[in-house]
TrEMBL record:
The keyword Oxidoreductase applies. This is SDR family oxidoreductase. Belongs to the short-chain dehydrogenases/reductases (SDR) family. PANTHER family: 3-OXOACYL-[ACYL-CARRIER-PROTEIN] REDUCTASE FABG, SHORT-CHAIN DEHYDROGENASES/REDUCTASES FAMILY MEMBER. It comes from Sneathiella marina. Pfam families: adh_short_C2 (PF13561). Keywords: Oxidoreductase. InterPro entries: NAD(P)-bd_dom_sf, Sc_DH/Rdtase_CS, SDR_fam.
């Protein structure tokens, strides 16, 4: 308990899935959590469910002005921002995403949310954390490490997050900012996005998950709490000697 006690934490894409699981865990460990999401109804409901340590703020992560407003309001209200979890992301805007099927509109939509959203989050966090210190955790994917021929735009976006994380981390060390920046790389997780992925790959939800189970050496896909636990570790003082690192939470998928 109390691994992030009194830490002011902003989690994007926090209305469901990994973001919501992370918010719930951080609150249990003593943090004050601002849940940010484009879905105001789901975000508000999640914050109400989590209690007085949870607050919802609407945020389109691709909008620079909204980032300025949200982070500025957090600092004005709480005096600082201690932890940023860049979790918001999208998988696709169409049914297919190979090099031959992906049009420029889908490519740009995915990069805008998954790459520019993380860039804007890191930029705002560094601006406000460089005096007081803090931790940034970026959600990437195993798709950043292995080839993803059926998800070329998504894989490229998560590879950009992986590289950006390392660049932010070293920038902060060179400037002597007390900021750590690390990334997490999940396998397909049982969330709404995971279900979307299964239907893209296989066309059928159940058979899609069955095929994934057969591919993962540990025998089962991860759950949101598995990723939340890794985010908590990286955000806590237990990871004080880690920056520019990547935690791969994939049941052995990338080891095969």
């Amino acid at each position: 308990m109390d691994r992030v006690k009194d830490k002011i934490t902003l989690i994007t894409g926090a209305a469901q899935g990994i973001g919501l699981a992370t918010a719930r865990l951080f609150i249990a460990e003593g943090a004050t959590v601002i849940l940010a999401d484009l879905n105001a109804d789901a975000g508000s409901a999640a914050a109400e469910e989590l209690g007085e340590k949870a607050h919802f703020m609407p945020l389109d992560v691709s909008n620079a002005d909204q980032w300025d407003q949200v982070v500025g309001d957090i600092v004005a209200t709480h005096g600082r921002l201690d932890i940023l979890v860049n979790n918001a992301g999208i998988l696709a805007t169409g049914k297919r995403q190979t090099i031959e099927d992906t049009d420029l509109e889908q490519w740009r939509a995915i990069q805008t949310v998954n790459v520019e959203g993380v860039f804007l989050g890191c930029q705002n966090a560094v601006r406000h954390m460089k005096e007081t210190g803090g931790a940034i955790v970026n959600l990437s994917s195993v798709a950043a490490i292995i080839g993803t021929p059926q998800l070329i735009a998504y894989g490229a976006s998560k590879a950009a997050v992986r590289q950006m994380t390392k660049s932010v981390a070293i920038h902060c060390t060179l400037r002597k900012y007390p900021i750590r920046c690390n990334s997490v790389h999940p396998d397909p997780i049982r969330t709404a996005m995971g279900d979307e992925l299964m239907t893209m790959y296989d066309g059928d939800l159940k058979s899609g998950w069955d095929n994934i189970e057969n591919r993962i050496p540990i025998g089962t896909p991860g759950e949101p709490i598995d990723i939340a636990n890794s985010v908590l570790f990286l955000a806590s003082d237990e990871a004080r000697h880690m920056t520019g690192s990547e935690l791969v939470i994939d049941g052995g998928l990338t080891a095969t």
